[in-house]
Write the structure tokens for this entry.
Amino acid sequence: MNKQAKRIQKPQLIHWRLYVVVAFVSLLFITLVVRAAYIQIIEPDKLRYESDMRTLRTTSREVQRGLISDRNGEMLAVSVPVRAVWVDPKRVYARDGFKDMRRWQALADVLHEPLTKILSRVKRHPKKRFAYLKRQVTPAVADYIKLLNLPGVYLKSESRRYYPAGEITSQLIGITNIDGIGIEGIEKTYDTWLTGTPSKQKVRKSRDGLVVERLDMVQEGENSNDLVLSIDQRIQQLAYRELKKATEINLATSGSIVVLDIRTGEVLAMANTPSYNPNSTDKLQAFRMRNRALTDTFEPGSVIKPFVVAAALEAGTIQDNQLIDTSPGWMRLGGRRVRDGRNYGDLSLTDILVHSSNVGISKVALSMPIEQLLGTYAALGLGTYSGIDLIGESTGVVRDSHRWSDFERATLSFGYGLTITALQLARMYATLGSKGILYPTSIVKLKKKPEGVQVLSADVANKVMRMLQGVTKAEGTAVRAHIEGYPVAGKTGTSRKAVAGGYGDDYVASFAGVAPVNNPRLAIAVMINEPKGDHYYGGDIAGPPFAKVMSGSLQMLNVEPVTSKDKVKIATLARTNQ
Amino acid sequence: MDKSRLDLTRIILNDLWLHRWVLLLATLVMLNAVAVVYTSYMSRSYTNQWDQMLQERDRLDIEWRNLLLEEQSQSEHSKITNIATKDLNMKRPLPNEEVVVRVK
């Protein structure tokens, strides 16, 4: 106590202490500066690395597959993001994941699968790092699973394709597989166009998981493209419904219908039966998935006759007012017979088509060289692709031979010995309506009218079309294809199906035509395969769906019907939007 | 002791005045530093906002897709035709029953 008191009284400077303190403090500072310099200048990489490890993340943005819509913007295929539930079995074991079985039970319940099945998937390969538990679960279910907080169970985003139109357009649109790759129809043909690639970007995230800095792109993504089809869903729906009805009533095996826009060659509807539901893909049957309108060929039968007349008129071997003698209702050609239903006597070209006389048309065909007929068929698109560019399209077969017997030439004129698709048939009739111009068919909505090829002279096309008007009138073969208000030019076809060694008992009934004759807008071809009811004539079977679809479609397209003058009203509207 | 000669405040002020440019620079440096902190803070919060908006866009896109599906299934043509014909007793006029109205 005393000593201390003295020191306070008499303060003295003790130099060495000062030096020690100064030296110590300086050393401290120097150390700090050196350390700072070391971290900042000499070796900054390690800490940067450590920081990046904690903050840098790669985020990826999923791109949904493009939408497919009809020409009026109605959706035909929409992708919706869903999640896949997957498990890392090794991690489940490492984290002692089976401790709380109630959670696994809840998972099984929400996935609608037995618990044992789910557990077996985890336990089967305990060393594996990946196994799907369930694919394509809805976001709501995914959120629930996330809250279950099961060790080793994760979610992964993927997408699911929905087809709102269902079976109406199923063969045309096709489907994608579970990984979102198109495997049928338009989905396959336009797969690259519809598919996008996800973009990946490096970002810096703050402690609470918010993105605070965007760094470089790891992978430049590509947006998917949408596809607008030429299909008019209203017409498509009507066509499918009527075709389905006709197929069922006639107990037919299958059927196809194609509606073409005469002025552009666009496909407005293309439907087939039997169909399938593209939204539930577990029970797919291949025969239901085929787009029969362009994959399946058939011998057309009488429906081809107008084009024989067109070829003859084009060649000038028959005049349009010429009468052809068909009595006695049959004729002999090289030991084979060509027969009519009855003896029609002298027939004009129009009557040959109206009564569908085989003898008459054979005489027309024999009047010109075979090259002329084959040339016309080829020019009208037989034996070639239609330009629609969809997978599975067949070209049909038109035999090319150096030697043709008279009988073969005759059969070619009433539609045997060659095969065509329903699409080709519709396209041929569209040519009659478009003044002889053949347009490439398109399933994609066109921005401008495509370049067509003049394959028949406008005069011949018009003449043949007017001749065909009689077919749906009282004395024709297809009264049931008659439409009040829209004059129809069309032709029936009934052909026996070939079997090994000849022709069997099954038929193909068809009807194709254009309307309205005064201002042709639509060409429709209907094909019903193997009807087994009381009727088998094309007019009875394929006529009614043709008439229903044609009149309905023309009304939907606001085509003015041919009516008496007193039904036309002139209205003046005060336009407010100008 | 002469008080005026040892006026500390004055000495300090004098001294500061002598080094006024240095002082000014020092202040600017400080302001600059604060500005750097501030702008980087702002840029981070804007980036964050941007990211949130992108997420919002994705969310809305998903909702839109679901609504689209709902709209499609509700406005299905055969469904509407059924309602019109069965519930509302409507019928489509035949082409020859139509009255054409030409707008001049």
